Amino acid sequence: MADSSDAQSLEQAPVYQPPSRLQTGEGGVPVAHIKSLEEYWTMYEQSIRDPDTFFGKMAQDELSWSKPFNQVRYGDFKRGNVSWFLDGQINVSYNCVDRHALTNPDRVAIIWEADEPNQHTHITYGQLLEEVSRIANVLKKYGVRKGDSVAIYMPMVPEAVYSMLACARLGAVHSVVFAGFSADALRDRILDAGCKILITADQGKRGGKTIQLKKIADEALGACPSVQRVIVFQRTGDPNVPFYPPRDVWWHNETANQRPYYPPEPMDSEDPLFMLYTSGSTGKPKGVVHTTAGYLLGAHITCKYVFDLHEGDVHGCMADVGWITGHTYIVYGPLSNGATTVLFESVPTYPNASRYWEMVDKHKITQFYTAPTAIRALRRLGDDFVSSYDLSTLRVIASVGEPINPEAWNWYYTVVGRERCALVDTYWQTETGSHIISPIPGAVPTKPGSATLPFFGIDPAVLDSQTGQELQGNNVTGVLAIRSSFPSVTRTVYDSHIRYMDTYLKPYPGYYFTGDGVTRDQDGYYWIRGRVDDVINVSGHRMSTAEIESALILHPACAEAAAIGVPDDVTGQAVVCFVTLKPDITQDENTIRTAFVSTIRHHIGPFASPKRIIICGDLPKTRSGKIMRRVLRKIAGGDVTLADLDDEQALKNKLGDLSTLADSNIIGSLVKKVIAH
Ligand code: WT7
User: Is pLDDT at 445 greater than 60 in this prediction?
Assistant: First the structure.
């Protein structure tokens, strides 16, 4: 990101015009929904000036209601009582399944691409309606009612999608827990949400490896008295997988005996649809709550306009359904639009680095969505893995999760997009539910590294982080906040509205605070600069330093720990931990480091594994005892050399003011440790 962060390089950033074929329809491609920058601005300005008319019309035109709403919008960020489409009734599952199944039962809803490259299945909308209904009936049979929470801990199989849509169908609130999370993390999430039912699988498959989902779930459930029933989908059929009736029931036995229709429950617009846990500045993950109509509208219209989705499109979002990207852009957005969505069980490098491109070619994918970390990793492996495939069906290629550096952008644009696709860098968060800043393919010129301009209804403000004052005009840098509510913004944190207010709405009263730094350049384009809080973003996976520290401290050898994020060429950021040991620890450092890594894997999950653990005598602290993370970040990032240690001025230039440091000798020993390690 370094090359895109100073004002001068932003001024010189190249500009790419939208591909003309999207504006003209040349070569038989569908003409974009929004064909010019003027058209975008006209719609955008209306969405800000008169959101009631704009979103009222969108909601009526794009969604199917069982009872029309009476009022478009109520409440605001000041009071934390945001609500949309009041008094309306709607069912998300009906919108994503029935309305397409009833008119086009044979249209393909899901293409499931299994871990093994030669295996894939098509599921039509007609079949989807039957499968969703069967599992909805099973849930009903086991006592799930409107408003109950259901935990879903599943691999990337169609049954994960059926489960989510079945919850939506009967009004249960799903809490999908990413299958890479550990037993402890799963347990905490089930307990927090008070889930009655867990839906899981015997095992998962990923990149040729087997994940012991049921075993992990059993470990978690040992401490979850609220869970009365576990529905187990058989992915591999391994006979050694533990199974404990009557608590455990098999998915295939249960669904086989149920009617393939279940009437969709009319839900109030503001009823919760799902919760999804995400990391914030503290150790405890938050259950971000999304509601029914506003979320669905956000998912639907961003999918339509940001991916320029048209009838017959095959939407390839490579995320996992365990994250918000999977919720919105594998499940709810594409299905609400009646598109075909790709569900990919594997990883981009299995069995080799052509996997994505072979899939685009085979399934004729039209929109392809992945993260910068995957693009950087594939770029390193060379163009040969891409060049022999027919990627001519692609119209929009997209990026999400962290800022995409210009080198990766250019490679994606040229080698994958072949300079004929729009590349959209989509900025959003778990909390926003859908894209908030992103180019529109046929309309907005792009600059590599910038998420460009706000989506409809998003009114961004750049604030001075200290004073909270709005920085007016262009060429300003500060923190990113949103001025007024939009349909898909999170309404609360599950069972913790105070935390919701404290995290998002109180830091800058009247605004929603994103937690990201931002620059608005001379053209009004937004450049996201990464988190300004203690959140680390590794390969687009969000975690908090406090969460990692809380895990480390559980190990008996750990006295104190500080986790920080350092820049990494492939993963964006990587976790580095500084740890001090308790007295009388006699094991060698390598053994202890290995034990610390497994502690983190055990309490959070493998994806949170630190890149380095530095065992040190002490941590740099202020006189009042606060750990000086900024100093650790610089030292871990290799900014300080041995020569700097004898040069007070150089040290000051690199580490900033050290006058509050309690023990100044500590810097030297830390630098030596980092270099020696
Ligand atoms: C954080 C949200 C939303 C989907 C995936 C992550 C960072 C996300 C971008 C982007 C720069 C980005 C931000 C944000 N982020 N997309 N296009 N450019 N930064 O969701 O786990 O809720 O993380 O990811 O820092 O706050 P999440």
Answer: yes
Q: Number of structural domains, the chain?
A: 2
Residue 278's pLDDT is 93
State the chain's maximal CA–CA distance in angstroms: 77
Last residue of a domain, one of 235, 265, 295: 265
CA of 400 to the centre of ligand 1 (A): 7
Is residue 296 within 8 A of residue 331, CB to CB? The reply is no
- Token couple for 84: 């949309």
Q: How far apart are CA 389 and CA 358, in angstroms?
A: 6
Task: Give the ranges where 584-659 is alpha helix by DSSP (H).
Answer: 589-603, 629-636, 648-655
Amino acid at 525: Y
407: left (phi over 0), alpha (psi -120 to 50) or beta: alpha
Neighbour tally for 134: CB within 10 Å? 22
- Tell me what pLDDT residue 299 has: 99
Ligand 1 atom nearest the C-alpha of 279 is 21
What's the gap in Å between 598 CA and the centre of ligand 1? 27
Say if residues 33 and 308 touch (Cβ distance below 8 Å): yes
Could you tell which of 4, 400, 490 is best to mutate to test the pocket of ligand 1, judged by most ligand atoms within 8 Å of the CB?
A: 400
Token readout for 644 is 């700097």
Q: List the CATH number of the domain containing 596.
A: 3.30.300.30
Residues 102, 94 contacting (CB under 8 angstroms)? no
Per-residue pLDDT tens over the stretch 99-121: 999 999 999 999 999 999 999 99
pTM of the model: 0.93
Instruction: Give residue 322's identity as a one-letter amino acid code.
Output: G
SS (H, E, C) 505-525: HCCCCCCEEEEEEEEECCCCC
In Å, what is the CA distance from 291 to each residue of 62, 431, 498?
A: 17, 11, 18
- Beta-carbon contacts of 286 under 8 Å, excluding residues fewer than 6 positions away, are 277, 278, 279, 280, 493, 494, 496, 499, 500, 503
3-class secondary-structure state, position 154: coil
End position of a domain, from candidates 216, 235, 265: 265
CA dist 175 and 195 (Å) reads: 8
Does 611 map to a domain? yes
Residue with tokens 């299994």: 114
Number of other CB atoms surrounding residue 653 within 10 Å: 11
Look up residue 360 and give its DSSP letter. Answer: H
Binding-site residues, ligand 1, Cβ < 6 A:
278, 324-325, 400-403, 425-430, 451, 514-516, 528, 530-531, 537, 540, 542
429 alpha carbon – ligand 1 mean position (Å): 5
Q: Identify whether 551 is part of a domain.
A: yes
| Residue 2 binned pLDDT confidence (cut-offs 50, 70, 90) | very low
* Ligand 1 centre distance from Cα of residue 378 (Å): 20
In degrees, to the nearest 5, what angle opens at C-alpha 651 toward C-alphas 647 and 8?
A: 125
The alpha carbon of 480 and the centre of ligand 1 are apart by a number of angstroms equal to: 12
The CA distance from 548 to 544, in Å, is 7
Q: Is residue 59 part of a domain?
A: no
Ligand 1 pocket test: which of 429, 531, 607 has the largest number of ligand atoms within 8 Å of its C-beta?
Answer: 429
In three-state form (DSSP H/G/I as H, E/B as E, the rest C), the secondary structure along 410-452 is: HHHHHHHCCCCCEEEEEECCHHHCCCCECCCCCCCCECCCCCE
What's the CATH number where 256 sits?
Answer: 3.40.50.980
Domain span including residue 655: 539-676
Note whether residue 469 is domain-resident: no
